[in-house]
Amino acid sequence: MATESRAGWMKSGKFGMMVHWLAPGPEPQHGPRVTDLDRAVDAFDVDRFLSDFRRTRADWLIFTIGQNTGYYASPNSVLDALAGPGHCPRRDLVLEIAMRVKAMGRRFIAYLPCEVAGQSDGIKRAFGWESGNGTGQEEFQRRYTGFVREYALRFGALLDGWWFDGAYTWPVFHNSLINGELFLGAARAGNGNAAVAFNDGSFCCGLSSPVLAGQDYLSGETEVLIGGKIRYGREKDSPLLAPATHVPQPPPLCLWHALVPIDCMWAHCCGYEPWPGSAFAGMPGPGTMERPVYRISDLEILVRDFKAAGGGVTFNAGIFQEGGLGPETVAQLEELASRFS
Questions:
Q1: DSSP-derived secondary structure for 187-230
Q2: What confidence tens digit (pLDDT) does each residue in 308-325 have?
Q3: Global pTM?
Q4: CB 223 within 8 A of CB 206
């Protein structure tokens, strides 16, 4: 019987970083946005992105394969067979990044939703998604986990984990209807030690338990940070989270983990309406990244609190379509990392 979480390496690291590069990508730093999938993926500057990532000194990276745009940043023959060509690029951007991140001696986690409720009608049909609520979605789950399995097998040991979005408690795809064995088997098909999290809204919905038995770390979605503490819920008067003493605690093999956006609200220029009490401002000017909204001292408090509880923290940073990060965000994370040297 396992005595250590598959995500145990988070405890010994400083923090991780996540970016939302949703193919064909967010707003660019220079010129008009490229809407053609292959052109956008081909133009992604991996050297620049990884130079910025290296400077942050983050110990792991969560990178998006895809979400609700109808496109993905990595080829997949299962999707080609189900939906026809055109949804995946020629270039395997995600695999390139995973290889380079691992060559740095850091960890790589892939992001996908575990549902397609917000996808195009074509993608929904391809995966057999049923629009009504309360169904088991058995055919969808069979097809979709085949799609996940292909990535897991191709990435193999390069893939240290998954962050699956969309396992919400509201009636789009009920947690109780997710076939955990099917999803976990697909996610770990190429690496039995891959750490897996499912996101049900987590801390911003007042939840601190894993979605499924066998989950390795909490998704930790957070929308508001106050004085280095996570607001545990969406109301202005929601309590602040103290992971070491909070009840309920996640089970022993599921780590405490927080995911906190620190400049844009998840994606650069995404137009996401921030929740009450959030520090996020409106859209930045053309070619300008959103600025960090929290003090370094607050980020340090958060990381120390979660490390003291045996867990870890991931900071979500904005990214341009060409692959660069915001210079102020990079500098802030670089300074934060120096406090854990």
A1: HTSS-TT-EEEE-SSGGGGT--S-SSTT--B---B-S-EETTEE
A2: 999 999 999 999 999 999
A3: 0.97
A4: no
